[in-house]
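Sanity check

After download, print the first record. It should look like this:
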Amino acid sequence: MRTLTIMGDSWGTLLLDSIKDELAERGLAGRVLVLQTSIPGSTADFWANNEWGSLDLVKQIVALDPNPIVYISLGGNDLVGQYATLGDAVFTEIEADLRFIVDELVTTRPNVVIILAGYDVLNFDKSAFCLLFSDLVFGSTLPEVVNPLFLEIGDVQATLDADYSQVVYANAWGALQGTPGLPDTASWSPDRFFPDDDLDCLHLNDQGYSVYTNAVFDILLPRQVVRVSDE
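Expected structure tokens:
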């Protein structure tokens, strides 16, 4: 049985059920073992520095599986936590940390498949608190200003895809808007995909994660990323 290890932040944590659902719907249930190592609130810097032995744990899993997949959801907390002080330099930090993580996994097992994904267009207009949050972190409440900042994380992931044969960037940005891979940066995603909690500005509800994950798998399967050999 092939392992698919989810590592990363709270998005990685919340994607567990929808990833299992997608595997079942696509006939892979029972053939791919999904392992959860995500740590809510964690950053790419946290994992690159092997805090709590987090990266070592994933490396041990990768070392044991002859054909492993690792799904990485990281970078969002680095952006939210550091953009106000670092500005665009935060993306240089995110790339360096993700590149280090990828190097460590590839060194552990050269045929590892690494999926870089996580995040879609959010909706800071969902509550007064989230608008204030956006203004404090990004200096703006306008989608055309805020959305491109999150999309920069995708640009970093695309760079790593181009540099490593083991890396697959799943560009599902815009999935919640009905246009995966072609997000409308001048608009937020629809309200129906977000939790009712006015203080939660960064996560989706179950329906949102289902739509997002379906789009990710639509990208991955044609590239033969999530599959199990019959041999």
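If your output differs, re-run the checksum step. Summary of this record's structure: The two ends are 11 Å apart (CA to CA).
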